[in-house]
Amino acid sequence: MKMKIAIGMVFFGFLLAVSLQDLMAAADEGKLAQDFTLASTAGRTVSLSDYKGKKNVIIMFWKTNGLYCPFELNNLKERYQKLEKEGFEVLAVNKKEAAAKVASFAGKQGLPFPVLLDEDGKVCDIYDVGGVPVFLIINKEGMITWRGYRFPERYAELTSL
User: Fold this and answer.
1) How many domains does the chain have?
2) How far apart are CA 106 and CA 39, in angstroms?
3) pLDDT tens digits, one per residue of 101-135
4) In CATH, what number is assigned to the domain containing residue 102?
5) DSSP single-letter state for residue 31
6) Nearest alpha-carbon partner for 94 in 125, 67, 117, 70
7) What is the pLDDT of residues 29-83, one digit of tens each?
8) Which residues span the domain enclosing 40?
9) How buried is residue 157: exposed, middle or buried, by Cβ count under 10 Å (0-12/13-18/19+)?
10) How far apart are CA 47 and CA 41, in angstroms?
C-alpha cells in the first residue's frame, strides 16, 4: 500500500512539474529576448544581439550530464546545415560547467555551432532555466516565439507569433 501511495505521489509531482513548465514556457512567448554576451569554447565572444535583424536564433540550454542533452545536441548537429540555409543560427549555452569540460565534450561530439559558456549561470537565470535541455526560438526581431523542452519538428513555423 505504501508503495502505491509513493508511486502516486511521484506521478502527481511529475504532472505538476510538467504543467508548471508549460505555463512558464507560454509566458516567455512574445517577450523581447534579453541580450547576453558569453565566451565560446572557440575562444571568441558571442552576443545574442549579433544576430538581431539577420537570423532567427535557436538557443539550447544544456549540460554534459543532462539526460536528453547529448541526444538533442546530436539532433541539432545533424540538422545544422539545413538550419543555416533556412536562416537560423544555433547557440548551445552550457549551464554552469567548467570551460575545459564543456570544450572537451563539444570537441568529442564535433558540434559545428557556437558552444557558449554560462559558467556562473547568469544567462540561465535570465531565462529561468532550471532543468535542461531548454530550447528557445528567437526571431530576427529579437522576440521569443517559442520555448520548449525538446526540439520542435515544425521549428520554421515558430518564428512568428
Assistant:
1) 1
2) 14
3) 999 999 999 999 999 999 999 999 999 999 999 99
4) 3.40.30.10
5) S
6) 117
7) 789 999 999 999 999 999 999 999 999 999 999 999 999 999 999 999 999 999 9
8) 2-159
9) exposed
10) 14
